[in-house]
Amino acid sequence: MSEARNGAGGLEGRVALVTGASSGLGRASAVALAEAGADVALVARSEEDLRGTEGEVSGFGGRALVLPMDLASVEETTGAVERTLEKFGRVDVLVNAAGTDAPGTVEELDVEGWDRTLDVNLRAPFLLSKAVFAPMREAGGGLVVNVSSVAGKKGWANASAYCASKFGLAGFSQALADEGRVHGIRAVVLYPGAMATNWGVWTPEERREREQEEALPSRALPPEEVAAFIVWLASAPPGFVLTEAIITPIEEGLP
Ligand SMILES: NC(=O)c1ccc[n+]([C@@H]2O[C@H](COP(=O)([O-])OP(=O)(O)OC[C@H]3O[C@@H](n4cnc5c(N)ncnc54)[C@H](OP(=O)(O)O)[C@@H]3O)[C@@H](O)[C@H]2O)c1
After folding, report:
1. Measured at the alpha carbon of residue 238, what is the angle toward residues 232 and 239, in degrees to the nearest 5?
2. Given this model, what pLDDT does residue 212 score?
3. Mean pLDDT over residues 33-42, rounded?
4. Residue 201: what pLDDT?
5. 26 CB less than 6 Å from ligand 1?
6. Phi then psi for 84, rounded to 5 degrees?
7. How far is residue 145 CA from its own chain's centroid?
8. Using a 6 Å cutoff on CB, does residue 192 contact ligand 1?
9. pLDDT for residue 225 is more than 90
10. What is the Å distance from ligand 1's center to 152 Cα?
């Protein structure tokens, strides 16, 4: 790890703000971006888990800013960019990886679960993108990665709020890409399939059960593989438009 940090990782002097950095894809992305040379601001609710990510980052000489917050709060979410700018002076990459869901049929789902899912999965990426836009424009460009899901391509039973938020995030990201294009700001929406994280249905026990019940693919994507793609995006040449990527395990096939 220290080799990449000390060598030419490509992101030296850059700053990334990563949500969901306490776990799974957000954590893997923050660590991989830091390994490539970036300073990282780490957002999630669990300070303890964010400290764990910070420990990994500082293990290879990276700088991290721990920002525990609930992304369902407008005030806390907006403050994340300000605090990142105060600490590091710039923000080049925003990764909106935090996500939540409210399972249940449409009949069962209550308004609170619907609102919370939409607030965390869709409103928070809007607020953060809004806050990073001017600093990125003034710096001549930047990257916003919005983590949707294959559930942002196809609706599933028992996941109406989640699917609505992920479809919405995709539309938001495409609009942002169109607005950002002339300023060198790239917005990319990712649609991952099954990833091997702590995410709801993918805990090891539940996964085993579901594998048997639903013949799920036997391999979920390691979040590090998706994180490597995000690092590539952060250092990709600026001269082309790239707005979305579907990333599924080979075994899962096309969505
Ligand atoms: N795993 C999959 O199979 C899969 C597939 C497609 C898409 N995705 C998407 O990938 C993204 C990352 O998920 P993951 O698989 O890495 O799951 P994960 O390990 O459970 O990570 C979810 C992250 O979101 C954060 N989070 C949740 N609610 C939050 C809130 N109110 N405020 C701040 N942070 C909050 C969690 O941190 P705290 O609990 O510390 O707040 C955690 O860091 C999500 O957007 C998810 O929808 C996952």
Report:
1. 125
2. 64
3. 98
4. 47
5. yes
6. -70, -40
7. 6
8. yes
9. yes
10. 15
Residue with CA nearest ligand 1 atom 46: 99
pLDDT at 209: 66
For residue 210, is pLDDT > 80? Answer: no
Domains of the chain with CATH codes:
2-247 (3.40.50.720)
Residue with tokens 């196809």: 154
What phi and psi values does residue 93 have, to the nearest 5 degrees? -135, 130
User: Is residue 124 within 6 Å of ligand 1 at its C-beta?
Assistant: no
CB of 72 sitting under 6 A from ligand 1 = yes
Cα angle, residue 151 at apex, residues 145 and 156 outer, rounded to 5°: 165
Q: In the Cβ-directed half-sphere of 253, how many Cα atoms lie within 13 Å?
A: 2
Q: Which amino acid is at 255?
A: P
Q: How far apart are CA 222 and CA 32, in angstroms?
A: 13
Which of 155, 160, 229, 156 shows the shortest CA–CA distance to 192?
A: 229
pLDDT tens figures, 72-97: 999 999 999 999 999 999 999 999 99
CA of 98 to the centre of ligand 1 (A): 4
Question: What distance in angstroms lies between residue 140's CA and the mean position of ligand 1's atoms?
Answer: 30
CA of 100 to the centre of ligand 1 (A): 6
Return the ligand 1 atom nearest residue 119 CA: 31
**For residues 75 and 73, what is the distance between their CA atoms, to the nearest angstrom?**
6
Asked whether the beta carbons of 225 and 26 are under 8 A apart, the reply is no
- 82 is written with which tokens? 């300000």
Q: Is the pTM value of this prediction over 0.90?
A: yes
User: What is d(CA 114, CA 163) in angstroms, rounded to the nearest whole number?
Assistant: 11
Q: How far is Cα of residue 146 from the mean position of the Cα atoms in its chain? A: 6
Query: CB of 161 closer than 6 A to ligand 1?
Result: no
Residue where the block lists tokens 């082309």: 240
